[in-house]
Amino acid sequence: MFNDFAAIDLARFQFAFTVSAHIIFPAFTIGLASFLAVLNALWLWWRDDVYLRLFDYWKTIFAVTFGMGVVSGIVMSYQFGTNWSVFSDRAGPVIGPLMGYEVLSAFFLEAGFLGIMLFGRQRVGEKLHMAATAIVAVGTLFSAFWILSANSWMQTPAGYGINELGQFVPENWWAIIFNPSFPYRLVHMVLAAYLTTAFVVGAVGAWHLLRTPESRGAAIMFSMAMWMALIVTPIQIFAGDAHGLNTLAHQPAKIAAIEGHYESYPEGRVPLILFGLPDDDAGEMRYAVEIPLLGSLILTHDLNTPMQGLDAFPEDERPKSALIFWTFRIMVAVGFAMLGLGLWAAFARWRGHLTTSPWLHRAAVLMGPTGFLAVLCGWITTEVGRQPYTVYGLLRTTDSVAPLQAEAVATSLIAFIIVYFFVFGFGTLYVLRLMSKRPKDRVDIEEIGPTRSSGITPVAASPSAPHTTAKE
Amino acid sequence: MVFDLSFIWAGLIAFGVLAYVLLDGFDLGIGILFPFLKDRQERHLAMNTIAPVWDGNETWLVLGGGGLFAVFPLAYAIVMPALYPLIIAMLLGLVFRGVAFEFVHRTARMQGFWEIGFWGGSLVATLAQGMALGALVQGITVEGRAYAGGNWDWFTPFSVLTALALLVGYALLGATWLILKTEGETLQRAQRFARPLALAFLVAIAAVSLATPFLHPQYLERWFGWPSGLYSAIVPVLLALAVWQLWSGLFHGHPMRPFLATVAIFVISFAGLGVSFYPNLVPPSLTIVEAAAPDASLKFLLVGAVVLIPVILAYTAFSYWVFRGKVKHSDGYH
After folding, report:
1. ipTM of the complex
2. Model confidence over A1-23: pLDDT tens digits?
3. What domain count does chain A have?
4. Which of A337, A401, A389 is nearest to A89 (CA)?
5. How many CA within 13 A on the CB side of residue A304?
6. Does A254 map to a domain?
7. What rounded mean pLDDT belongs to chain A?
């Protein structure tokens, strides 16, 4: 089956597969950890049972997802060595310590306090439990900080020298960590994670509103998610634009490939190619549907700035356009669809029927998984756009690979594919099953008595409420 | 210059690996013992003794991999391709083991399947780690800055022996952990497991210890030469003390002593490996100094390690303190 492929293609596919499978989980848990911290804080503040119930509801989903993130993440920390050993030897002195800091400052923090967050409310008390929950959320953000710094350094290397062994040697750690593309990529990814979570939470809320319109928990979820959609999506679009300008400054070939510009525009006035079929072999865009001048406006915010096309770069230094032309467009389309839903929900909220608009809820359910789609497409765009290099402009992908035989890589690749689809397939099923359970509004309806209208519960009203570790 | 940065880092990485072996060792040991527990209720009780801490325990493995990448990139670049199938098998085993903690509670129909996954994953990960240890002790063929051996160099009688030794060792850690964390019938069962496992582990350590010096002249010199053999002799003496503690702890039904004594046996055996390896990081030829990253990398991460590792140890200890004491069926974490 894999006879026609070289070890390097298989290694690239294996990395793409394992890292794509992995990113799905952190893209969700980064946002979910913060959401849980907010829910727990709201519970402590208002002592309204519904927030504790929502916390417990999402906590279980978090535990399942986080577990899958952990096991798929450990695979990543070994992929560099098993399949990309030359890269590890050369770039290890720079990339390695960044990942070392991720382990020391983030992974241990998350893992150390996760147990207390999940199982420890009654053992440590509310305050320490709140602290543990917040620490887990902060840990996920630390993790994003370091891993995006490492990735950004591979895109826009800075602060390094090269020694006689061909290794990258750190010279200025500040310049390495805060390399030119890092701030943009960090903001873009963290917002993406928040939006991904918001749309999942919104979809779950909408789903339950469609079935049980009176559910308070579902209404709160949906309302919180739609606030996020309204506020964060415009910021994300702005951040994405800034990230694009930064890429144009540092990786012009990537932008040319994303936009499908095979030819340069020395006088500016660049059209925006909306759709088309990029043909990398012929070096042209087939069936292009273009809007004149818009490309210049978006990319340089100026009509007359010259733009390099792929023809400005030697053939062996060009990324291929075929894939990333499309992944980029899907990501952008998802972004605008998210904005649309946010505006729609804001309008419905203004008219007072946010929780009673079935079509809005159906749209929100449909939009639930699109955050993952956008995250995957965005990463494919930036990673494939970095080709043919692992360290942009300095170390080629073909020079980074481990001295492995194709059979070895093919065997492990097949094993990863089978195990991942099986294990994470069931994991996704279990998460969906948890999501299909209706969130409870109250701790225990029989013990509390008749429905309260205000929703504010004095603590004494539910003295026997078993707050956590209740059997699910 | 004995105390240059690379030696400090070799010590820290060794500490990380040892922490992993001890902490995830008892987690994996529980997994290995899984089919020998009485029923589903008891299996889940055993799982609950580690549910709040397993993730932190496994993070030491990421420190081992990530830390090696950071401070000994050359060793990482050579060892990973050399042990390729073992590393992949270990990772896939850990996938099944890790997800099982949550998955067993999320399904009624496939509960048995994920229990088997928990057991099988623990078993595979343990055997892969044990074989990797054996392959490393035997030595790895290096040319230039890359692995130069074959696909199957890691598979030898010696690596099978070390794999079995680690299997028995982890199972013993798991059994003594259960002695510490459970009561009643489960406690008695764990005590019954511990005695034959302790014997088997000692036999295995003896076999590995006798075989090792004959793998390389350096090992032989280290253990039986003069005067280095005199210093090395302290290792078997300490080992005998720990074994005595283990045996008397088991005999008197002491709750904590068997576990701590097993930990001591692991620490001493690990130190014994260090005696054989030094000054190599990857036997037989790659030294600690050669494998080290440039000083700028070592210094930068050392600052973080010096501050953060004590903090990590502190909150890890806190987490164990929070979840201290015997685990009961009624504590169900799910």
Report:
1. 0.86
2. 455 578 888 888 999 999 999 99
3. 1
4. A401
5. 0
6. yes
7. 87
